[in-house]
Automatic annotation (TrEMBL):
Signal peptide (from-to): none
Keyword Mitochondrion (UniProt): no
UniProt GO BP: intracellular protein transport; SNARE complex disassembly
Species in which this protein is naturally found: Octopus sinensis (East Asian common octopus)
The family this protein is said to belong to: Belongs to the SNAP family.
One Pfam family per UniProt: SNAP
InterPro entries recorded: NSF_attach (IPR000744), TPR-like_helical_dom_sf (IPR011990)
Protein name, per record: Alpha-soluble NSF attachment protein-like
GO cellular component: SNARE complex; vacuolar membrane
Any one GO molecular-function label of the UniProt entry: syntaxin binding
Keyword set includes Secreted: no
């Protein structure tokens, strides 16, 4: 057994101790019923550190796939512990490891998912430039290396307009509306399917309402959108942030 395998086994054992929370986090079957204990968070933290160490050990062993998996598991645990920066760090490292695998679509998709987790965490902490960078990379297929191999990847094929939308929302929260509009227009050109979405229509309506200083129209645009496509909590939070800045109102 390699050092990485040993550390991963220790992490799994730590999680399975008493309450079997591994099944809750990663979807594995647990032979024992779940019992909530006061030191569950401590065991999760210790397991996260063990998975991080395992990821590094696998990296030194030139096992990129196992390294990426271990770092991803560490990221999941840190996210459960509400340690966003630690989770983001592990997801970035996992993505870096998985992208080293030669032309393996599943690994590449997992790498993208890790980075998307980083983008979500970054936006939640109002680190909009980082979130924008990731969402735009994903919507552009990152680079040409895997463009052909990932052409049929559902995450990419159907997700690109969604990530363009999220990038635009972050632009609206981060900069002035003029620069945000330029960024949205650029993304609309880069991701043609984005222009045909209700998300793009909503963005245009929101920016138009701000230009016209029409706060009521701003709300009407959201209500109209919500009739067809429910506004999720993450989107609601960013739109509220944009509205608060644009109309100088306190939405708390």
């Amino acid at each position: 057994m390699s050092k990485g395998e040993k550390l991963s086994a220790e992490a799994e054992e730590k999680l399975n101790k008493r309450d079997g929370i591994l099944s809750t986090l990663f979807g594995y079957d647990s032979p024992r019923p779940i019992h909530r204990t006061s030191n569950k968070s401590q065991r999760m933290e210790e397991a996260a550190e063990l998975y991080s160490a395992a990821g590094n050990a696998f990296r030194l062993e030139n096992n990129a796939e196992a390294s990426g998996k271990a770092y991803t598991q560490a990221g999941v645990l840190f996210e459960k512990l509400n340690r966003g920066f630690d989770a983001a760090d592990r997801y970035v490292t996992a993505s870096s490891s998985l992208r080293k695998l030669p032309c393996q679509i599943n690994a590449y998709s997992t790498a993208k998912r890790c980075l998307l987790n980083v983008a979500t965490i970054s936006a939640n902490f109002e680190d909009y430039p980082k979130a924008i960078e990731i969402y735009e990379k994903v919507s552009h297929q990152f680079d040409s290396q895997y463009a052909r191999e990932t052409a049929n990847d559902a995450l990419l094929k159907y997700g690109a307009p969604e990530y363009a939308f999220k990038a635009c929302l972050c632009h609206l929260c981060f900069g002035d509306i003029t620069n945000a509009r330029i960024a949205c227009d650029r993304l609309a050109l880069d991701v043609p399917a984005f222009c045909d979405t209700r998300d793009y229509t909503l963005l245009c309506a929101l920016m138009e309402a701000v230009d016209q200083e029409d706060e009521e129209g701003f709300g009407d645009a959201i209500a109209e959108y919500d009739k067809i496509k429910r506004v999720d909590p993450w989107t609601t939070r960013l739109i509220s942030k944009f509205k608060s800045s644009a109309f100088q109102v306190d939405l708390r």
